[in-house]
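Quick one:
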Amino acid sequence: MSTDRPGQLTPSQTVGPYLALGLPWPDGPDVVPEGTPGAVTIGGTVYDGAGEPVVDAMIETWQADPDGRFDHPDDPRGARTPAVEGFRGFGRAATDDRGRWSVRTVLPGALPVFDALPVFDGAADVREAPHIDVSVFARGLLDRLVTRIYLPGNAEANAADPLLSSVPAERRGTLVAVAEAPDRYRFDIRLRGDGETVFLQI
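Output:
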């Protein structure tokens, strides 16, 4: 920590609390348009280490479409029009005054292992289970936290997923959403403490 004037310290820099000043936008949570066939809502509550809701967090999501393709020219298999009209792959949602967030999207498809772990090197038939990549921004975090959402209806694919299977068995549940209805999934994010969500080093 540096000093600007004798006896005074500059504040440490974090990713908040400026989040509400322009980063969220009105349709940020809409990965697909309203009325999209097969659309689902995925959301939950962000909790701090004391179990209190975090009311000024921001959640970003990035995912493949149902065919396992990304709406991005850097997809290693080449750019392609998404399988779902209006799908953009990216979502951004701020938490509300109860720490809740949600996005409207479609369920992703499985993916080839692009950056295979050494044990899977050359194993062309190894695939990542369908998942959604998540970044968490909040007051007090020096950097974003990164995690994944896996889906509960994919037990066999989840068991074979290289990343999920590398997580200690007792903590894997923190990366799997809970189905509350056919079109709604809950994924709570716990920043610290009991039941802390598994976060990834990138």
